[in-house]
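Hi everyone, sorry if this is the wrong subforum. Our group has a chain we'd like a structural model of before ordering constructs, and none of us has done structure prediction before. Sequence below.
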Amino acid sequence: MPEGIIRGELAVEKGRILEIAASGLPKADREIDAKEKIVMPGAIDTHVHLYDRRYLSREDFRNGSAAAAVGGVTSVIMMPLDTPMLTPRTIKNIIKLGQKESLIDFALHAGNMTTDSIKNIPKLASLGIKSFKAFTCAPYCIKDPMLGELMTAIKNVDGIVFVHAEDDKVLQEQTERLLKEGRKDPLAHAESRPNEAEEKAVDKVIKLAKRAGCKLHLAHITTRQGTELVKKAKDKRMRVTAETSPHYLFFTREDMRRLGPYLKVNPALKTGEDCAALWDALAKGVIDIVSTDHAPGTKAEKEIGWKNIWTAQIGIPGVETLLPLMLGEGVTKGRLTLERLVDALCTRPAQIFGLHPRKGVIREGSDADLVLVDLKKEMTITAEKLHYKVGWTPYEGMRVKGAPVMTISRGIVVAEDEDVIGNPGHGQFLTR
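Answer:
Right subforum, don't worry. Here is the predicted structure as tokens:
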């Protein structure tokens, strides 16, 4: 509830919350007794790579949405992994496939934006696409003058500029240095993407966004310097929001000695000091939301990185473990209040990306996207129990307290007690 935690009853009809009351609602066709559990809005993961027709061995709509449902995620916003989503024809095809295959509701980010695709922005916006992913670094780097032009075009459709912010020159210089030294070990990847790269790029895109007057969302902030720049922008009342991802909260580059290529992500992992800064910024709302950047690679695509980290696939699976991790490591350990968790995983994602108040809140008239959470339940995260195609998780063996036990999407139970209950095709495309 926007008002906080209350004890009461919910009535759901035709997929929406019909009534909220302290008690006394009439009998229904089906009744669910939440007992001593918490009922919260379904989580919204705004940064997932569920589908690329070239890489179906890694993930697809049916499998990825099932994993999301079990994890308490009732809506996702999907973006391209490698194959671009830049034309109305491509977008329509992906929407059609998602409506056929997805167990939960989904929206799309267009991307990865190029100079040539700027002209498509009005057409994409008319299809309900209001966020556009751009990079300040390879392999999808868009140069400063055109990034400014892109921002203006997106502002004209009241859209959101969504930026992966790392400085391309810094990354190139560091990578070239390490290659000359013959470095192929896992830590070489982390060293190739230093804090300086994020700091320079975040500073630059905030300045460009101020000039354009557009809404800016910064993907996966990883550094203390990045959080400081976001705070300064917010203090100036700029329309800037930011996310981080669980792996930047839980792992440091030192963990690559143990897990190696399985923790190869872009941006790279940073230090313990950076982790602490991210938790602090998240608790205070400087970092608005947590999203997973769910991008699985197969074991084979990861294992080759032990010999040569530069050849390993980038990315990790994360959508199913988002809520359990943030409950266990955030709420249970006192880093976040339960209210702030709901804000970061449900309400703020919906507000930032144009889904509120349909999504992200428990309110009369909103979609009945609900998750029953048992704050006392203890679980050990293991790949064997997860629903990922790739069969691994970097969180293997991590024990957490607090877990989703039932997921309801628009009034339909889609997951219960770690089992998939819903059916492909239930998911709807969310226009924004």
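For your construct planning: Residues 39-420 form a domain with the TIM Barrel fold (CATH 3.20.20.140). The longest helix spans residues 195-212.
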